[in-house]
Amino acid sequence: MAKFTPLHDRVLVRRVEEAETTRGGIIIPDTAKDKPQEGEIIAAGKGKVNEDGKVRPLDVKEGDRVLFGKYSGTEIKIDGEELIIMREEEVLGILSGAKKEKEEKAGSRR
Fold first, then answer.
1. CA 65 from chain center: how many Å?
2. Segment 19-72, tens digit of pLDDT
3. What single-letter DSSP state applies at residue 31?
4. CATH 1.10.10.10: does it fit domain 10-16+30-109?
5. How confident is the model over 67-106, as pLDDT tens digits?
6. CA dist., res. 38 & res. 18, Å (int)
């Protein structure tokens, strides 16, 4: 993957896909699903520069699972993968109990 480093208070987010079936086993077609509002921080900028010229570090970091608004950020493609770049202020919160995508995939193979 190409190396991308967001500037200032921006973060790069990979959407986390929702399950494609309901508990009752009904398959949800792609056309009926909303895009997920949950993602994983792939890269983060150094922080926001305040009036004094000092950099305030971001509250989020690479690997964090986050929630964001439905229309937040700008969708971009890097190496064919759809990602979102947004300002830290567009992130609504960090999910601390959520498993990371890699851990979930590893667990499902067992």
1. 7
2. 554 456 666 555 545 566 889 999 999 998 888 989 899 999 999 999 998 888
3. G
4. no
5. 998 888 999 998 888 999 999 999 999 988 755 544 555 5
6. 9
CA distances from 49 to 19, 24, 36, 57 (A): 39, 50, 30, 9
Domain boundaries, the chain: 10-16+30-109
The length of the chain in residues reads: 110
Q: 91's torsion region: left (phi>0), alpha (psi -120 to 50) or beta?
A: beta
Rounded Cα distance, 47 and 42, in Å: 15
Sheet holding 38-44, edge to edge: 74-78, 81-87, 10-15, 38-44, 65-68, 91-95
Give this prediction's pTM. 0.70
CA–CA separation, 42 vs 25, rounded Å?
32
